[in-house]
Design a protein that fits this description.
The structure holds 2 protein chains of 2 kinds.
Chain A lengths: L3 H19 L7 H29 L3 E5 L8 E5 L1 H26 L8 H19 L3 H19 L6 H33 L9 H5 L5 H19 L8 H7 L2 H27 L4 H24 L3 H28 L3 H36 L10 H4 L3 H12 L6 H15 L6 H33 L6 H4 L6 H19 L1 H7 L1 H8 L4 H4 L19 H21 L25 H4 L1 H7 L3 E10 L11 E10 H21 L7 H19 L1
Antiparallel strand pairs in A: 1-2, 3-4
Helix pairs in contact in A: 1-2, 1-4, 2-3, 2-4, 3-4, 3-10, 3-13, 3-19, 4-5, 4-10, 5-6, 5-10, 6-8, 6-9, 8-10, 9-10, 9-12, 10-12, 10-13, 11-12, 11-17, 12-13, 12-16, 12-17, 13-15, 13-16, 13-19, 13-21, 15-17, 15-19, 16-17, 16-19
Chain B lengths: L2 H22 L3 H26 L3 H28 L11 H25 L8 H17 L3 H23 L4 H29 L17
Helix pairs in contact in B: 1-2, 1-5, 2-3, 2-6, 3-7, 4-5, 5-6, 6-7
Classes of the chains: A mainly alpha, B mainly alpha.
Amino acid sequence: MEGSLSSLVLTAIFILIASVAIVPLFHRRQHLIVSIIFPVFSAASLFSLFAGILAVAGGEAETLILPVGLPDLPFHLRLDPLSGFFITVVSLLAFCVSIYSRGYIAGFIGKRSVTHLAIFYPLFLAGMLLVLVSDDAYFFLISWELMAAASYFLVLYEDGVVENRRAAYIYLVVAHIGAVAILLAFGVMAGFAAGFDTFHGYTFDAMRGASLPPAWASTAFVLAFLGFGAKAGIVPLHVWLPEAHPAAPSNVSALMSGAMLKTAIYGIVRFTFDILHTPQLWWGELVLAVGLASAILGVLAALLENDLKRLLAYSSVENIGIILVGLGLGMIFLSFHQPLMAALAITAALYHTLNHAMFKGLLFMGAGAVLHATGVRNMEKMGGLIHKMKWTAPLFLVGCLSISALPPFNGFVSEWLTFQAFLMSPSLPSQHLNLVIPLGAALLALVAALSASCFVKAFGVTFLGHCRSEACATAHDATPSMRAGMMIAATACLLLGVFPTVVIAWMGNLSSQLAGETIARSAGEVGWLWLTPVSAQRASYAAPMVLLGIASVLLVVFLTLRSKKSAIHRVPLWDCGFEKITSTMQYTSTAFSMPPRLIFGYLFHIKERVRPGLPDGRPAEFPAKVNYSVRVRDRAWGWFYRPVADLAFRLAKHTARLQHGRIHIYLAYSFFTILFLLLVAL
Amino acid sequence: MTFTAQIINVLAACILLTSFGLLVQRRIYGLLRIFAWQGLFLSASTALVAYTAGMNHLYISAALTLTLKVVVLPYILYVLVNRLNIYRDVEPLVNIPATMLIGIVLVIFSYHLTAPIRELSTLVTRTTLAVALSTVLLGFLMMITRKKAVTQIIGFLALENGLFFAATSATYGMPLVIELGVALDILIAAFIFGIFIFQIRTTFDSLDLKEMEKLKEHEGA
């Protein structure tokens, strides 16, 4: 069985890359591309999904050396529980999204060519899988760049829109700044592993054996955290995320938010827990603080957003924050040599990673279905879609419930576990941590509540009430393959929420790899029904029972309503004595987020404008109508991005003086360079 | 100094002379003729080195140089010039006497630069390295100081001649595989240049490279 799982993953990658060569041949037969190639991608994802699940369950590390690449620097591959887990996350989502894509992409046919979408999509998937199996810095960075470049072209798919081009450009810039930081981090590690004058420290194996002075270890950690954090969208490096994710086609947004951000989390986990393997206390505090900041700012920005896909993108920032909170706690616990508590925190974080992939994927697919049906992203133009989209609406609701951390869905389990990790902290032998960490728990609770209200808004404004525009009056429901993709994701959300003990038992090898201890034994000590993270006396949660309770209440309500035929009426709305009610009288998205905008508004750059419409000499006291507009912007724009961008432009302007457009001058540049170098060589 | 070594030195001098000839010549047909002569000298010197050093693969290089640089490339350029009707005078950016003076400075510089190598090397050809380097620099100079695209191509090809000569004089030539590759590259480059020139003319109605300044991004745009 040696190497069989990794060869399964490589098969999947091979299928994906091979399809890149085949797709262009069918450029003229767009329907064929869509209906054949996307099912092939789902099949490939199934292969790697299978391998990932088995790799985590098996607990063994498979290594493989591919003699390609530069001479004497072969590619190293490794499939251990950690990479297996993330392969599972990526492949499971890729499976759902590829099924969904078949219907979604078909909607583009006739408007624009889908060929390059079908080329970069598998490259993107292959890039993510390659990142997860690579075991040396060189191969890792190649795969990382493949992933970044492929997703750049996917963001740019609808390149006729100026905002999309701008978003893709910002994304590319931030991705590369991040990549440089990662490169430097690996450079520090490799240098201490094998000396700065040789390349042989480039394998992760060599880096694991490196002994770094604490200051250099911290440097490597901070560089890696910045680099991966830029990709994960931590505050304040997150600004590209709400621009780029909505700009991409929705199936790609689902993959970017659900899977690509997770590869950044993978990078942080791999680098901190595996390669550096002895986290220092302040690293954990840094990650915890950044995580909390991302969570709170992310959810507030999401709450203030009116664009459905931007809302989801900001909510990804929030969820990355929650994952980082778990990881930060894990680092803190490990630095105090508390492996069991660390295992709890890391399990919570990784569980949330898996969950977020599922429900965010589901929500983006749902948003894609709405966009597909109505053609608008602005929630102020939607409403009442529950009547037109009888499948999408309940599936989107499942996603909303999951992300709002309500039982019996999966979001609840992982956030509950994160809180359990918080509640363990008082046993730490540090006074100031015992003071600060409960504050973090309180902030996390606030985040959970705000996120619930955010998704009440998302679902309520989009699907409930009346149509607010022509666009949604003609809406249609999602096609069968889109429904199927969403349904699989929704089922995964439910199953991950109902059988947490099974999942945690499966993840046992993972936390023992990272923290040297596992909560798999204590979590299931009273049977699969009860989840008891540390011990049965401390806290327990029986998800199947909760599900049973909810189901029985629903059944009773349904039966009592159905037993009397007259219990349900459809009548006109009570109009308070007005002549007629129009759809503009509904609670709008902007109105819904008014209270948090007033309370937390100082965290953002908000421009509010009220303009009375006064046609020909009407007195100001009696306007015909009032125009109200509000614009919310991240402060990070002004504080971080603008100064850097201005500096870059100023430098570019000076450098542009070298550019004359005259070929002779360019030749003269190289001529004088050669002369100079010859002189110096002398 | 043996007889062959003296002949090699004479040929090197001829190559240097043709390099200056390229700088001075005002007519395009003349340029082509001088370029072909340079190729001929190069080929002869390579064959001679092959004979003295007993390295058989250099004969192939010599034959290759003869066919490509004496026959094929001048012919291609000749056809190009005829097709485009550009047998007018060469238009230099810097006037010709000044270019000559710069060229002389470059030759002195090259001799100065290769002095240490001359003392260390034991090859028959060691004295010619300075000539090779000056040929490279003079070719470069020609590319910088000429306005028209065709003259720049000739400058580039002369530069390549210098490189080839440097390879034979410094190390008795490169491995045959590389030399074949380079020869092929030069041929392809000539074709690509030809296509480019046609494109430039159809785009700008002129072969003056000054027109290409229009391609520059304007400030504030």
